[in-house]
Write a structure and sequence with these properties.
Layout: E1 3-7, H1 12-23, E2 27-32, E3 46-50, H2 58-61, E4 66-69, H3 81-102, E5 106-110, H4 139-153, E6 159-165, E7 167-169, H5 180-185, E8 190-193, E9 197-202, H6 203-216, E10 221-225, E11 228-231, H7 232-243, E12 248-251, H8 254-269, H9 278-283, E13 287-288, H10 293-299, H11 306-318
Parallel strand pairs: 1-2, 1-4, 2-3, 4-5, 5-6, 6-10, 7-9, 8-12, 9-13
Antiparallel strand pairs: 9-11
Helix pairs in contact: 1-6, 3-4, 7-11
Length: about 350
């Protein structure tokens, strides 16, 4: 039985990765801050280990063949690069160093599509595309990019595979995280939408891509886990169709987003935490589109429709197990997070 060490198992993606690993016959050691915060399935082949990303987990790493690192700081309101770097770079270096020392065969790092250059429908972003503004100014995306560079420079003994998902939608979104975008339009009479668009993907497919990369992923390679490129307006229309609603959809003028970005920059200069910033508001005005050709060809992925992802997420939010529904409007930067 192959053994895997996983971080971030209490989140949206981590829950699905652990579920997929167990279904495929792996033994999983999952690092969690508190065992009580794990809402996934119980299994005789799952061991929960309490600790932080800076804990000494070398004794556990000696037992596994692979490490899947998912945990990250993804918030959009932190005020300094150092706050992101501590979790998204320093903690990864710490875990990777222990993995190398323990003789782990392969280290799989879950990053973000925004370390790569986005494209449009005529020329989609791909694994060789250089990072572009506004993500070159995003502390989150920059911290992920720095970590990718470190790992790819140090993949001589322990193999490194980078997975770069786009915007994930699906069930088991307990917080919710990316599912907040559904609440932006669900059960509303009036909905404002930004002018841009992004790539959406079912979280189950991302989990499948990560697990497939254990055997199929090549050392030193990056893989976009992406599917449908949609304008925000078209995504909201899908939500409305699935929920059988018909709210009034109105465009949010670009100049308002620009002003909100400037206001956010001012607040940040005064050390006020906010999701608003010029880079975040710019991200809502671009077509943040990518291709999934490499993951289909090399990781043997078959992607589900975004309609299915939305329906699965809504079914979960309506499920009696999900008792912490948050139905108030969310910050605009909700759309920006990958």
């Amino acid at each position: 039985m192959k053994k895997v060490f996983v971080t971030g198992s209490t989140g949206l993606l981590g829950t699905h990765v652990v579920k997929k690993l167990l279904r495929d016959g792996y033994f999983v050691i999952a690092l969690v801050r508190q065992k009580s915060r794990y809402y996934g399935q119980e299994d005789e082949n799952l061991r929960l280990v309490e600790g932080s990303l800076f804990s000494d987990v070398s004794s556990h790493l000696k037992l596994v063949d692979f490490v899947i690192h998912i945990a990250a700081e993804t918030g959009q309101d932190l005020l300094s690069y150092g706050e992101y770097r501590k979790t998204n770079y320093d903690a990864v270096v710490h875990l990777f160093s222990q993995s190398v020392e323990a003789g782990v065969r392969k280290f799989l790092f879950v990053s973000t599509a925004n370390t790569m250059g986005y494209g449009n429908l005529d020329e989609l972003g791909h694994e060789s595309s250089g990072q572009k503004y506004p993500f070159t100014k995003s502390y989150y995306a920059r911290s992920k990019s720095e970590t990718e560079d470190f790992l790819l420079r140090n993949n001589k003994t322990t193999e490194v595979v980078i997975l770069n998902p786009t915007f994930m939608i699906g069930p088991y979104d307990w917080k919710p995280s990316s599912g907040k975008i559904i609440y932006w339009v669900w059960k509303k009479n009036l909905v404002f939408y930004p002018s841009g668009g992004k790539n959406f993907v079912h979280v189950e497919d991302v989990a499948c891509g990560i697990v497939n990369a254990i055997d199929r992923g090549k050392n030193g390679e990056r893989y976009l886990l992406a599917h449908e490129n949609l304008k925000y307006k078209d995504f909201f229309k899908k939500v409305n169709m699935i929920t059988r609603q018909n709210p009034l959809l109105l465009p949010l003028p670009d100049f308002i987003l620009i002003l909100l970005g400037v206001a956010g920059d001012l607040l940040r200069s005064l050390n006020v935490k906010t999701n608003l910033s010029s880079p975040n508001m710019k991200a809502l005005r671009i077509d943040n589109y990518y291709t999934n050709c490499k993951s289909i060809e090399q990781l043997n992925l078959e992607y589900q429709s975004v309609d299915k992802a939305i329906a699965d997420a809504i079914d979960f939010f309506q499920n009696k197990e999900y008792t912490t529904l948050k139905t108030s409007p969310k910050p605009l930067s909700t759309f920006q997070q990958n």
